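Researcher: Re-running this chain for the archive, since the previous output was lost when a drive failed. Same request as before.
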Amino acid sequence: GKDRIIFATKEDHETPSSAELVADDPDDPYEEQGLILPNGDINWNCPCLGGMASGPCGEQFKSAFSCFHYSTEEIKGSDCVDQFRAMQECMQKYPDLYPQEDENEEKSSKDLEATSEEAPAAKEEKGSS
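Model: Regenerated structure tokens:
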């Protein structure tokens, strides 16, 4: 009942369309824009954020990123340490979603126990290449 099928005839296609195109709204948050919208706001829908704004730590990410973006400190973002710390603490609760890329970071004893058996094999693989 919700769908309706309309058949177009050859004659329907012979007459020019009277449809008018509407100009793009530069402030439309659903329109593909860059990271920063023309009005200076952050485009949280930008694919360049890789979904960070909508994950389980999205609010912490938005808070930290907003703070950095609008920071007027001489060392930009130096006033945002608390927000970035909160984001990092949240991300550590979801290691499958937010893998730690830096292998040199301090690991908790739980992580060390889990990887202690894998470490010798990893060293051998690195040495052989």
